[in-house]
Each structure stands twice: as structure tokens, then as C-alpha cells.
Amino acid sequence: xxxxxxxxxxxxxxxxxxxxxxxxxxxxxxxxxxxxxxxxxxxxxxxxxxxxxxxxxxxxxxxxxxxxxxxxxxxxxxxxxxxxxxxxxxxxxxxxxxxxxxxxxxxxxxxxxx
Amino acid sequence: xxxxxxxxxxxxxxxxxxxxxxxxxxxxxxxxxxxxxxxxxxxxxxxxxxxxxxxxxxxxxxxxxxxxxxxxxxxxxxxxxxxxxxxxxxxxxxxxxxxxxxxxxxxxxxxxxxx
Lengths: 114, 115
Hints:
The complex is a heterodimer.
Chain A: E1 4-7, E2 10-13, E3 19-25, E4 31-37, E5 44-50, E6 53-56, E7 64-67, E8 73-78, E9 87-94, E10 104-105, E11 109-113
Chain B: E1 4-7, E2 10-14, E3 19-25, E4 32-38, E5 44-51, E6 56-59, E7 62-67, E8 72-77, E9 86-93, E10 103-105, E11 109-114
Parallel strand pairs in B: 2-11
Antiparallel strand pairs in B: 1-3, 3-8, 4-5, 4-9, 6-7, 7-8, 9-10, 9-11
């Protein structure tokens, strides 16, 4: 089945130790997104790629970076995780950027920072 | 800046009841509105997407309505079942720039259906 896959599902890192979260998709969608969702809060968009074009939200901290080496994969890099970065990180895709295009989400990666 | 509010934050009902979840948004200039389901510790599953030009969408026991002018949407769940227990999130797509998409989410309504 076509889907959005996130690895790992659970990630534990130490304060200040760089960490990379992975997302892949078999939907061949043009757009990939990264959201941060803290406990009992709404998901918050960090950035997205439309093909190779990177779009950063204005309030996304510099500590968060992203790479999209090809259509299928997108990575979230946290350069120096702080305790406040502990959250669920959700990857999503959409075929395009029109109002007809639903976003499809992966299962998420829960990040713990010790 | 768009703000999305969902009321109530939590809801507990007995099995079989029909129920309504509410979503309101402050800026009516939206492209579409999506309702999602999130099970504990899991990702989001898209339930329904309503275009800004539409009034409602239906999928099985779910019916979502949209009143864009008043900034409101409702999700109606008929004959609720224990398997419907989850958090339901609404999100509005309000960015008008081609190639730049942004969903603004509400904090969700946590639904518990008692057997």
C-alpha cells in the first residue's frame, strides 16, 4: 500500500546531541511537510518542500533543518536538541499545493531528550 | 494570524449516541478545511476534506459541514462506537500563495465512547 513511513518511531537523544528523523513516501507526492506536536497541543508546521523548493516557517528555530535528497525521502535534523524539543514529529505529504490536495500523515516519531 | 478553536476539549458519551464536534476559525479566507483523527501516540488520519466552495462532505457515519462566512465547521458522528474513541482535529488551509501550504490546526477534541 502507498504510504508515509517514519523512522524511527521512537527516538531518545541527549541534550545537545544532534539527531536526524527520517520520512519516506511511496505516494510519489510533490510536497513533503514536517510538523511538531507537543503533548496535548496542535501540530505546528516547521517547514515543507515543494519538490526541491524549501519553505521555512517564520518562527521555526534555526536549530531545525531539513533535507530532501529525492522525491521519496525527507529528513529532519535537530542540531542541538533541547529539553523543549521533546515532541511528536509528524511527516506529511500532498500531491500538490492546490485546495484539492489532502495532506497524508505518517505515524510520527516521538522524540525524548534526556 | 489564523486561530483555530475546538470545543469541547474532551467529550465522553455512551455507545450509540449521535454527537457533534465543533471547530471555529478566525479568518474566513480559507482554501479548505480538513478533519483528522489521531489515536494515542499515533499520526493523523485524514477523515474529510471540505473545499471552501462546499457546504458539507460525508463519509460513512461522518458528516462534516462548513460555514465559511461565520468561521465554523462541525463534525457529526452518527451512532458512535467505542472504536471512534480518539482525538479529532480540524485544520484550515488558508495560505493563498501557490507552492506554500500551511495547515493551522486546532488542539483537538478528545472523544471517549463508552461501551
